[in-house]
Every structure is written in C-alpha cells, then in structure tokens.
Amino acid sequence: MLVVLFISCGSKEQKETGWTSLLDKDLSQWDMYLSYEMKDNYNGSVPLDTNGDTIKPIGYNNNHKNVFTVIQDGDEPILKVSGEVYGCVFTKESYRNYHLRLKMKWGNKKWEPRLNKSLDSGILYHSIGECGADYWRTWMTSHEFQLIQTGTEGSSGDYWCIGQTQMDVRARKDSSRVVFDNSASLIPIGVNSPHGYYCAAKGTIEKPKDEWNDIELICYEGKSLHIVNGNVVMALSNLRCLKNGETKPLVEGKIQLQSEAGEVFYKDIEIKKIKELPTEYQQYFN
Question: Which Pfam families match (predicted)?
Fold first, then answer.
C-alpha cells in the first residue's frame, strides 16, 4: 500500500512540473543548418571561390564535418557543437510563453575567424523565417541570448539583434558599451536604433571553464529574461521585428543553438510552458 502511494505521488509531482526534454541521442526534436567555414576577412557578403563565383551554403540537415554530435555520459545525452562551420541546430517546433533551461560548458577548440577571440555561442529565440537572414548569412531572424567566455568582448547573457529585430531594455552607457541596468531608463536596441545592435549583460558569474553553467531563458508575451547561474543579467521588453517596413511583435518562434567558431557542450535541455511571468521576476518590468 505504501509503495503504491509513493509511486502515485511521484508520478503526480513529475506531471505537475511540466518540463519536456528537448535532447535525445538522435536529436529527434531538432533540424540543422550550416552555412560556411568563415575566414578572418569575411565582410558580410556571400563568400566567393578562387574564380570569384559565389559559394553556396552547405544548407539544411547536412551535418558536414560532424559539427553536431550527441555523446553519451552513461544514460545522459550531451550535445557537442564543434563550431568548425557556422550554423545552428533549431527546434522543429515553435514556442511561445515558456521557460527554457539547460546546462552548458566550453570546450577547447577554436576556428577562424575567432582563433584569437573568446569562445562564443548563443541561444537564438523567437526565430522565424529561413536561415541566413543575418550579417553572417547563417541564422534566422531572432533575438540572441549570447553565450561567450567572460572577457573583454562581453559575457554570457548579452543581447544581440539577429537580422531585423529590436527590443527595449533598461540600460546605461558605460564607456563604449550599453549595459543593462534595471534602474536606468528604457531605450531601444536593435536594427535602426541609435543605441546599436548590442546590450551587455550585468552581473554574469560564469563557472570555471570545465564546469557546467546553468542557463535559463524565460519568455512571456514580448518580455524575456536572461538568467546565468541563477542571476538575472538581462531583462528585455517589447520584442519585435521589422517586416516590409513595419514593426511587428516577435513573441514566438523556434529556438536555435549556434555553431560559431568555438567548441561548446550542452545537456539537460528542457522547456516548460508558462501562463504568466513568475512573480519573482515581475520587478524587472515595473
């Protein structure tokens, strides 16, 4: 009787959590796209071959050089992204109003054009349209939760506009950068903004290189929170994009994980639908 009761309670608890795993050994819930092996002289144009002809991107679901592989640690799948070719894996489904969580850690390998720069990757969310819409001709129109080794270039949790996107954030000018500051005034960031395409996170505490970092993204009706190891480092409002000259809300879409010239590992990728912004985070939008 006691055993039956225990199992019943355990099943109910699991059901109430609402978390869905997005990672398995077959990457069954993801598609992929690869564009090019970038060089240091890339200028935003379609790369050319030695004859001056345009080079076609590698394209969809062609895992060239095994950029994306799933390795097993016991029963636990771990996604390895080599970074050798610019690209992404992206969810087959689109999501709106959710809490995404995962663990990530850095590898050791770097590739052009980032051989002398920080290891870099990112979570691109509310992704719409075809891949190749950005400067690097690789990713979908989206908002970026940057993942980067903390250093002079930035820190995990930074925001980047990918393609024709915009958002509002409470931020201040700090030297040459715009930095998230929840006590500052709300300003626009993104395409056509006088404040630029980028906003630096504030308060990121990254674990040592060989340890797993806890990464969380919470999105609800045009708002988003970037959370790194339990710390809110960015709060965004009025997520939107420009389409045919008009500004439109961008509040749902697919999720991309970047391959961006640096080796990175992911595990425990889970998502949960939410019906409201959690109470403890509402202070960031008052």
Answer: 3keto-disac_hyd
Q: Which fold has domain 20-284?
A: Jelly Rolls (2.60.120)
pTM (whole model) above 0.85: yes
Q: CA–CA separation, 137 vs 130, rounded Å? A: 10
How many other C-beta atoms are found inside a 10 Å radius of the C-beta of residue 35? 24
Tokens representing 162 are: 């990918």
Place of tokens 């009025």: 238
Kindly list the domain boundaries of the chain, sorted by start residue.
Answer: 20-284
Measure Cα distances from 30 to 61, 93, 94, 131, 268 in Å. 10, 8, 11, 14, 15
Task: With beta carbons less than 8 A apart as the criterion, state whether 123 and 147 touch.
Answer: yes
Closest CA to 160 of 199, 121, 117, 216: 199
Interval 85-128: pLDDT, tens: 999 999 999 999 999 999 999 999 999 999 999 999 999 999 99
